[in-house]
DNA, contig: SP636
Amino acid sequence: MLARNMLSMSGLSLYRNAVQFGMNVAIAAFVLPGDYGLIVFTTPFLVLIAMLTDLGMTSAITRAPTLSRDEAGAAMGAMMIGGAVCAVLLVAGAWPLERAIGMAGLAPVMAAMAGVVLLSIAAATPRALMERELRYAGIARIEAIAIALAAIAGLAAAWSGAGVWSLVLYNILVQAMRLGAFGWTMRGVLRPNARFGQLKGLLSFGGWVLANNILNFLARNSDNLLIGAWLGAAAVGVYGLAYQFMLAPLMAITWPTSGILLSTLRGEDPHGPRAQATVEGVLSATALIVTPAMIYLTFGLAFPVDSLLSGHWAAVPAIVAWLAPAGALQAIASYNGALLMVAGRVKAQFLLSVANTAVLVATFVLALPHGLMALVQAYTAAISVMSLAFLAMTVMLTGLRVERLARALAPALLATGAGVVGVAVTTGLHPASWTGWIAATAMYGAGVLACYAALHLHVRRTLAALLTRGAPDAAITGR
């Protein structure tokens, strides 16, 4: 069950990220980094509004042992009202913010994107109810269709010369279709209401989640805000495109799998043998996917970017070469948050987020005056050290032995190393033509897959640990 859910949601996230990245590359071919930077700079404000209106209730809905229809409806009603108020405030503040930081063109983009967050907030509760019932295949189907249809419309708009507005159109269409489909699917058990007194139980847990999410928001978005305000829209556009590569495994694998892990292990002792086997399998499966993919970017990205995009984007491969390895380590290490929630230690998660945010924001502030690449290098060092600390925390939370963790991660590291060595001694790590790039990519893929084939027993054990999990009882009661 866990493996099937992990495949559904991780596959969906990979698909979503691939489509979104394709959209971004298409837009990059038509616009300058400064125009793209408007979307990058606006996104943190949308994320903040979504968190403030969510109040941690969607996580609480997923985790709560029991949930009434009134509670779910009140959560949706509260979130929709809060989202509408925040969207109005965002529109009202867009033009003053544009004038304050001197970022021309920001206000109309920010005002239009306010509609995106309003639709996303309204879709959050019905989606959380589906996740609570472990209906991940249905979630994946809905999101895949919405993304495909919106991408077609967005690419058509980009081809017609809409520029950055094609990304705005894409996001609005995705969220509108998600809201319609999730709302229709859960129409039998969900009716928005204003009985906000029903929310005490959800908010008692969700409050800590909200505080933790706000801290994570600062850690993940303060770089874009600081770069945009300090270095301008062009710099944040280049950094934003490069940062997507680092964030891709976290979004595609770790975040959706963390939600599944939370639902699957709900009510279990994280030190128990079944929980340990599950966590070990998740860590190993994540490493098998993200490690070779991210290390490939350190040498395989430069040629296609230089060939397909204008010189305005030339710094992207150099930034990715620093961020990608740290992104792989971060994706493997970031399940500690879900495990803290399984153990009911939300206060500990909050304190961890305080430390994480303080370190990252201090890193950004201290490094930014020395230029964009100095910030990238400092950020890479900071996130790598913290990821190692998160892995140590996972060991403590589950009681896994360090040698058992090492065995879980070793196949991915060995296969990736073999792939890099194979490319280095054959085609070289710096292809100068499409033929050379294709050969290097093929050689790397063949080396990694050959190692996985040689280590097939480990891969089979990993899958077996994930396939043995069943779904917990998570019904929605009448009222």
Observations:
- Residues 69-101 form the longest helix (33 residues).
- The beta strands are 67-68, 476-477.
- The mean pLDDT is 83.
- The chain has two domains: 12-220, 232-468.
